[in-house]
Write a structure and sequence with these properties.
This protein is an alpha/beta fold. The protein contains 16 helices and 14 strands. It has an eight-stranded parallel β-barrel, surrounded by four helices. A two-stranded parallel sheet has the order 1-2. A two-stranded antiparallel ribbon has the order 3-4. Helix 5 packs parallel to helix 6, helix 6 packs parallel to helix 7 and helix 10 runs parallel beside helix 11. The longest helix is centred in the C-terminal third of the chain and has 26 residues. It is globular. It starts with 16 loop residues before the first strand and ends with a helix. The model has no long low-confidence stretch (mean pLDDT about 95).
Length: about 450
């Protein structure tokens, strides 16, 4: 039976509409116009926004120094009643924001039972409810994943655990996750490292753990084929937290792992902005690494705090970052099955229900603005022409011989001995940043 969205939880919020940059309405989009066409596609098609279930509906605002602060109308409920209320609230918010997608961990939507059988029974009940809502909702499942890091059984990891019993439990959990993905029509399935890493090498067999992780991934690929799940597999890199060292540290490390274990035909990367900065990279760096290697699959859209060294998961509002991110995504031809998932949470001090709406509007507007600026930069070939000219020495003479593989150390030595004075040209770093600022202000 199809479920109908009610006005139970976000009653003070109407469907969020585009009103333009002159609007003073905090519950309206200033830049995100879903039907506006950019480069031949609508904003909705290009940005593919997704609400992250865990931060939006299950986070309570607690931190290591304080108890929960989030004031939610479902806080008085527990167990399956709480899970059902969150589903109702979720689809109400999806409709009011007009987002095309959502994402979740299995344990976000349903509580664990006393054993795996009971846990799966709880999950099935909520999945049936979600299915009923999806019969009439325009919001689809971007991806789902398994929470294999919260329960104490995963203290040493899941697929990389030193305990084979835990490996088996994790396999059963991901098996159910893939069945869930097929049931709900997920366009992707994500593997997030969780505790797949180590705290010290003094007690770690790294080769066994990485071999086991690869075995686990191959089992997932095989089972997806068995049940006919055709969504894209994604891995989400992160350098640390909760372990000291995560095996999927960054894009380059994860791509190397996939290639080493012959998993590269089946996986792409789900890249998060805050994880990039934790790894000592910019977000655009990670996107560029994945894009040029053919592994850019999806994005977790958030940002970190420049003065804090942990995963703060703030809503993305930095226009410089969103512009350069959309530049890479557009150069990639879009995200295919992927999307921009708001793996972001409101601040602990933003505890009122409407803050969830304000935050998503801010993030959606920031990426919409970034999309327009990035598209204009590409149309005007601002960086492409600069890069082409900077590397023009490789289009003729000795440079062309190098690129075409006709040069060797003998010919290069002969050239260097007879070449005379070397003349370099400025990279014009500051000028390019000024041009970028000009586009940000004027487009």
């Amino acid at each position: 039976m199809a479920q109908t969205v009610t006005n139970t939880y976000f009653g003070s919020v109407n469907k969020v509409a585009f009103e333009g940059k002159g609007s003073n309405n905090p519950l309206a989009f200033k830049y995100y116009n879903p039907e506006e066409v950019i480069g031949g596609k609508t904003m909705k098609e290009l940005l593919r926004f997704s609400v992250a279930y865990w931060h939006t509906f299950t986070a309570d605002g607690s931190d290591p120094f304080g108890a929960a602060t989030m004031q939610r109308p479902w806080n008085h409920l527990t167990g399956m009643d709480l899970a059902r209320a969150r589903v109702e609230a979720a689809f109400e918010l999806f409709e009011k924001l007009g987002v095309p997608y959502f994402a979740f961990h299995d344990r976000d939507i349903a509580p664990e039972g006393s054993n795996l059988s009971e846990t799966n029974k709880n999950l099935d009940a909520i999945l049936e409810m979600i299915q009923d809502y999806m019969k009439t909702s325009k919001t689809k499942l971007l991806w789902n994943t398994a929470n294999m890091f919260t329960n104490p059984r995963f203290v040493h990891g899941a697929a990389t655990s030193s305990n084979a019993d835990v490996f088996a439990y994790a396999a059963a959990q991901v098996k159910k996750g893939l069945e869930t993905a097929k049931l709900l029509g997920a366009e992707n399935y994500v593997f997030w490292g969780g505790r797949e890493g180590y705290e010290t090498l003094l007690n770690t067999d790294m080769k066994l753990e990485l071999d086991n992780l690869a075995r686990f991934m191959h089992m997932a690929v095989d089972y997806a084929k068995e049940i006919g799940f055709t969504g894209q597999f994604l891995i989400e890199p992160k350098p640390k937290e909760p372990t000291t060292h995560q095996y999927d540290t960054d894009a380059a490390t994860t791509i190397s792992f996939l290639k080493q274990y012959d998993l590269d035909p089946y996986f792409k990367l789900n890249l998060e902005a805050n994880h990039a900065t934790l790894a000592g990279h910019t977000f655009e760096h990670e996107l560029r690494v994945a894009r040029t290697a053919g592994f850019l699959g999806s994005v977790d859209a958030n940002q970190g705090h420049p003065m804090l060294g942990w995963d703060t998961d703030e809503f993305p509002t930095d226009l410089y970052s969103t512009t350069l991110a959309m530049y890479e995504i557009l150069q990639n031809g879009g995200l295919g099955n992927g999307g921009l998932n708001f793996d972001a949470k409101v601040r602990r001090t933003s505890f009122e229900l409407e803050d969830l709406v304000y935050a998503h509007i801010a993030g959606m507007d920031a990426f919409a603005r970034g999309l327009k600026v990035a598209n204009k930069l590409i149309e005007d070939r601002v960086f492409e022409d600069v890069i082409r000219e900077r590397y023009s020495s490789y289009t003729k003479g000795i440079g062309l011989e190098i690129v075409e593989g006709r040069a060797n150390f003998h010919t290069l030595e002969e050239y260097a001995l007879n070449n005379g004075t070397i003349k370099n040209v400025s990279g014009k770093h500051e000028r390019l940043k000024a041009i970028l600022n000009q586009y940000l202000l004027e487009v």
